[in-house]
Amino acid sequence: MSEMVWSSDLETGVELMDEEHQCLVAIYNELDAALMKGRAHKKMNDILGSLIEYTQFHFTDEEKLMEESNYVELPQHKNEHQQLILKVQRFKKKHDMDQERISKPVMKFLEFWLTKHIRGSDMEFAMWQKANEAAEADDAGVEEKVST
Ligand SMILES: [Fe+2]
Domain range holding 135? Predict the structure, then answer.
């Protein structure tokens, strides 16, 4: 596995989301570096702690943005977030009980989140929001013309 570099294909164009998604890339890279040094198991407590904290504040922010723009797919998106939260909690439980080494599965999980959720569902919201804003701008333009 190798370090992940933030790139334009992860960019949604929604500033707050992009800023916060970079934290997820940072967590991914932290785990990757720990794996390379053979210290992933030792660092797992910190990494899972960061992930739990991150999921809480990031999903709250993202869902707030979606609520504010009356996003039609919000229930499905919230559901996806819930699945990601459950997965992190399950990892934490496994780690706390020291049932198994979870470094590689956590890495795979982060990859899934970055490739499927961000590039998929988060991107869909960003595109929807852009289209919505454009339509609103058009409406405003029409109203302006009508009123003059
Ligand atoms: Fe999301």
Answer: 14-147
